[in-house]
Design goal:
Elements lengths: L3 H5 L9 E2 L10 H14 L9 H21 L6 E4 L2 H11 L4 E5 L15 E4 L8 H7 L4 E7 L11 H10 L4 E4 L11 H4 L3 E5 L11 E5 L15 E4 L4 E3 L13 H17 L1 H19 L5 E3 L8 E6 L4 H12 L1 E2 L1 E3 L4 H7 L4 E5 L6 H17 L1
Parallel strand pairs: 1-13, 3-4, 3-5, 5-6, 6-7
Antiparallel strand pairs: 2-8, 7-8, 9-10, 11-12, 12-15, 14-15
Length: 383
């Protein structure tokens, strides 16, 4: 069993600041750096392009990561497409299902709203921070072509009932896209149990990989045609037509982000060593303690629900949220995020201009939560 203190040795930057901005991006473990050093000094070449040993090894390593990701999510390798980020994954799905009525929610990140603005949409509002299945069923129309929903809001942090939503959607033969940017690597995801049609995943948050790396799961990739066309995805081309490779290669035109994927393999290895169940328990402990301590501080309004799994959003009365975040950084070396968090519609629903957000990762500690609460107590009293 790996302790948090042992884990922190993998994250040198965690010793220099208290890093509570993990919902934006996480710190990266040393093994990512070692994997990249091995890539660039031992076998660096292009993917799937050449017969020589370096290209062959690059291709093998890249595909090994795809297999590891598929196993981690309980999917098949051909269902796993590497992309730049969650935003690209969602935009790809908007291309794969280009028409029809879309059901979504007011809790979504802008990346899960803007790609569907040209369509007729129904935006559900949460009840007690959760989407009601009754509201969802009432919103379904004959021309509903997609239900797209966050697994956990990047502001609220609690989990939505995605298995139940997918079960209901399946009874109407409506595909479901789940935005799992905030949950992959911190909550167990079993795609055979969830049974969604698409899942968009950020690799640079809970999966601890470098920025510019993401995953799109497509349950039935053979049904869809790619958005991007070009090198690396064709089996044959003549003057009038072309024949594509099978999935997932047909969705990955051009030179892929080889360093990002190789580093993802290393970070995912660490997550599997620790175990997602242990990570989730640790994050829930930190979140619960943070909510408990902040609720004791006069003037703090907590926005996140008590069952948030890794995010605590709040405001401090008589203080601008940006000022609070700056004071935490400048006076106490605590990194948080402030603003609307790319969730403008949710803040209109909450009737708020923004907030401060603290979010946790596997290398954070209860002692850091206590120092965070102490800092906020001083700010509330002294400014």
């Amino acid at each position: 069993m790996v302790s948090v203190e042992e884990l922190r040795e993998e994250f040198p930057l965690a010793k220099k600041v208290i890093y509570f901005d993990n919902a934006a991006t996480t710190l990266k473990p040393l093994r990512c750096l070692r994997a990249l050093e091995e890539l660039f000094t031992e076998y660096s070449s292009n993917y799937g392009r050449s017969a020589h040993r370096l290209s062959q090894r690059t291709t093998e390593k890249y595909e090994e990561v795809r297999e590891r990701v598929a196993s981690f999510l309980n999917a098949s390798p051909e269902q796993i497409v590497f992309v730049r980020n969650t935003t690209e994954a969602i935009n790809l799905v908007s291309h794969l299902i280009p028409q029809g009525h879309v059901i979504s929610t007011v809790m979504e990140h802008n990346s899960n709203l803007l790609p569907f603005f040209s369509r007729e949409r129904t935006l559900l509002k949460p009840r007690n921070f959760l989407i009601s299945l009754e509201d969802l069923e009432r919103a379904i129309r004959d021309d509903t072509s997609l239900i797209t929903i966050t697994h956990a809001s990047n502001v609220l942090g609690n989990l939505q009932p995605v298995e139940e939503i997918c079960r209901l959607a399946s009874s109407y033969e409506i595909p479901v896209l789940i935005d799992s940017a905030q949950t992959a690597g911190t909550v167990e995801i079993n795609l055979k149990r969830i049974k969604c049609d698409f899942m968009a995943i950020s690799a640079h948050k809970g999966l601890l990989a470098p920025q510019g790396t993401g995953i799109l799961y497509i349950r039935e990739p053979e049904r869809y045609e790619p958005l991007y066309l070009g090198g690396g995805i064709v089996e044959d081309v003549d003057e009038q037509s072309f024949r594509l490779l099978e999935a997932p290669q047909k969705f990955e035109a051009g030179t892929p982000n080889i360093p990002g994927v190789i580093a993802l393999g290393a970070s995912l290895e660490l997550i599997q060593e620790v175990g997602v169940a242990k990570i989730e328990r640790h994050l829930r402990t930190l979140t619960s303690e943070c909510i408990s301590r902040l609720s004791e501080i006069e003037g703090i309004e907590i926005i996140s629900p008590e069952d948030s799994h890794s995010i605590v959003s709040f405001n401090l009365r008589d203080f601008n949220f940006h000022d609070v975040s700056i004071l935490l950084d400048e006076l106490y070396s605590i990194c948080t995020r402030s603003g609307k968090h790319c969730a403008h519609l949710l803040f209109k629903h909450l009737n708020l201009e923004g907030c401060v957000r603290a979010s946790f990762a596997i290398y954070n500690t209860l002692r850091e939560v206590e120092r965070f609460a102490e800092a906020l107590e001083r700010i509330s009293k002294e400014g």
